[in-house]
Specification:
Layout (H helix, E strand, L loop, with lengths): L8 H12 L1 H12 L5 H13 L13 H7 L4 E2 L9 H10 L2 E3 L7 E3 L7 E13 L2 E12 L2 E9 L2 H9 L9 H11 L4
Antiparallel strand pairs: 1-4, 2-3, 4-5, 5-6
């Protein structure tokens, strides 16, 4: 049995909403993991999501788009990324790897040894739990050093925050139109 369904109206709506709200999807994800995602990284992750057909995953919905976007992105490098609000991850990196933080930007992950070291992050273990009349969803955000997991954080989906964010009117001046345009160009053949 497959975890994907055939393309239908829902999958098309999911993909359309992902593109139209791509800057907000990235914003929600950044806040959940505490890492800034560059536009280039966000688009690379979107290409992986499209290639893996994340919008066809049977648990994808209009409410969990940021997290399914993450779930269907491949492993990504953490080197050079800015960790802006994840002190537990910073501590794990400082204690378990040769990575430190750049002096000019105290939050940017760097390897001062000059030797190559593989430091990545990925998302795994999507879980859906029924609680009374509602559902709770989560996935794990994992950081690996040289192929060994060194940090895991469970992310519980805050669907109310995401829904509120995408339905808020009057904040168009805060939108990242360039990121939305890049997302559209990446997915235009599917829309």
């Amino acid at each position: 049995m497959t975890n994907k369904h055939q393309p239908n109206a829902l999958s098309k709506t999911i993909l359309t909403l992902l593109v139209e709200q791509f800057d907000r999807v990235v914003y929600v994800l950044e806040n959940d993991i505490g890492i800034k995602l560059s536009d280039t990284l966000a688009i690379d992750m979107l290409k992986n999501y499209v290639a893996e057909q994340g919008y066809l995953y049977r648990f994808s919905s209009l409410h969990n788009i940021p997290w399914m976007f993450a779930y269907f992105s491949n492993s990504q490098t953490l080197r050079g990324r800015i960790i802006f609000k994840n002190e537990a991850l910073k501590t794990a990196l400082l204690t378990l790897t040769p990575f430190t933080f750049a002096s000019k930007n105290a939050d940017q992950v760097v390897n001062e040894t000059g030797k190559f070291a593989n430091l990545t992050f990925y998302f795994t273990r999507h879980k859906v739990k029924k609680e009374d009349e509602s559902y709770t969803e989560s996935l794990d955000f994992v950081v690996a050093y040289e192929g060994n997991d060194i940090y895991t954080q469970e992310i519980v989906f805050d669907v109310h925050f995401f829904n509120h964010l995408i339905n808020t009117k009057g904040n168009d001046d805060k939108r990242k139109r360039n990121l939305i345009e890049l997302a559209y160009n990446t997915c235009c053949e599917l829309l």
